[in-house]
């Protein structure tokens, strides 16, 4: 157990989560809030809440578990690296690759490949199972992911995600045609009330979610679209498009169980553009990736 002990010596009161995030810059505010919820932040020997206002001479103790050594095996899996420097790595994930180990997927994941490529240079904030991983895309979604090599970069990117300031544009093929070329879906997303393995739009206690879409090309009974995420909820594009009657082609969870296109595995969804403030330079950077071969071939086939 790692422990920090601090005495609050200011006459003015201040929220404890804000005070600690400034005093302990190596710990993010969201991480500190989680520690508070877990009753690992003690004020004068007693657990407190995030909105507790510090008082003069308060003795604050922050308890944090020591990072456990990774017991996952590095694997020499080829990576499509779009960009790399000392703090971040941009990879173009292929269809079928799981981002991090989970039930039924304890090897062959992006994390296993990253551990081989980066060795010990991966952020530790998300623990032993998700080193370096700030955000995820689904197994059968292709495209760009940013990976962090250190905790400073991870905190910076996590904060940008929280503030919804990261540019994320996806390309997809969905069922049906649209009456208007652009639109916005604003519907909260949460766990499906019956099928707990799925997410659903408009559910009670769901989290706010916004997706902007634009039709790029009308196909024969389908539409090639671009979706821009304002928020980043689990399965957001898949759930939102299905909620307005335009599920993603190939998505057998939120769309038809059998795809109308033979030999198609998983949703036709590609994370094409990713932009953010670089954690080291403070400058905006943006990356783009080509559509995978199966996607371009499918576009040609559906437009003939």
Strand content: 25-35%
Biggest sheet layout: 9 strands, mixed
Radius of gyration: 22 Å
How many domain units? 3
CATH topology of the largest domain: Pseudouridine synthase
Can you identify the CATH superfamily of the largest domain? Answer: Pseudouridine synthase
- Molecular shape: globular
Instruction: Return the average pLDDT rounded to an integer.
Output: 90
Level-2 CATH architecture of the largest domain: 2-Layer Sandwich
User: Which residues form runs of ≥5 with pLDDT under 50?
Assistant: none
Characterization of the model:
By secondary structure, the protein is of the alpha+beta class. The chain folds into three domains: 2-64, RNA-binding S4 domain (Structural Genomics Hypothetical 15.5 Kd Protein In mrcA-pckA Intergenic Region, Chain A), CATH 3.10.290; 68-163, Pseudouridine synthase, CATH 3.30.2350; 164-304, 2-Layer Sandwich (Pseudouridine synthase). It has six helices and 15 strands. Strands 5, 6, 7, 8, 9, 12, 13, 14 and 15 form a nine-stranded mixed sheet that branches. Strands 1-4-2-3 form a four-stranded antiparallel sheet. It is globular and about 75 Å long. The model has no long low-confidence stretch (mean pLDDT 90).
């Amino acid at each position: 157990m790692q422990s920090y002990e601090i005495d609050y010596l200011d006459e003015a009161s201040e929220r404890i989560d804000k005070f600690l995030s400034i005093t302990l810059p190596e710990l993010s505010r969201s991480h500190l809030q989680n520690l508070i919820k877990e009753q690992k932040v003690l004020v004068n020997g007693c657990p407190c809440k995030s909105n507790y206002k510090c008082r003069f001479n308060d003795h604050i103790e922050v308890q944090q578990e020591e990072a456990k050594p990774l017991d996952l095996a590095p694997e020499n899996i080829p990576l499509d690296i779009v960009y790399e420097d000392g703090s971040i790595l941009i990879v173009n994930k292929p269809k079928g690759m799981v981002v991090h180990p989970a039930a039924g997927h304890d090897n062959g994941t992006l994390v296993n490949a990253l551990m081989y490529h980066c060795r010990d240079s991966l952020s530790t904030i998300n623990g032993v199972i998700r080193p370096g991983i700030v955000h995820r895309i689904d197994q059968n979604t292709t495209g760009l992911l940013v990976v962090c090599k250190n905790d400073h970069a991870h905190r910076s990117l996590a904060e940008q995600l929280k503030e919804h300031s990261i540019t994320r544009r996806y390309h997809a093929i969905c069922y049906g045609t649209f009456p208007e070329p652009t639109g916005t879906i604003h519907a909260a997303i949460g766990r499906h009330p019956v099928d707990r393995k799925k997410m659903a739009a408009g559910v009670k206690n769901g989290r706010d979610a916004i997706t902007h879409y634009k039709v790029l090309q009308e196909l024969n009974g389908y539409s090639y679209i671009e979706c821009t995420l304002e928020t980043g909820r689990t399965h957001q594009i898949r759930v939102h498009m299905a909620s307005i009657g335009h599920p993603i082609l190939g998505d057998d969870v939120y769309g038809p169980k059998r795809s109308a296109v033979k030999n198609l595995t998983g949703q036709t969804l590609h994370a094409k553009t990713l932009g953010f403030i670089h954690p080291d330079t403070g400058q905006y950077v943006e990356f783009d990736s080509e559509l995978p071969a199966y996607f371009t071939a499918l576009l040609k086939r559906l437009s003939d």
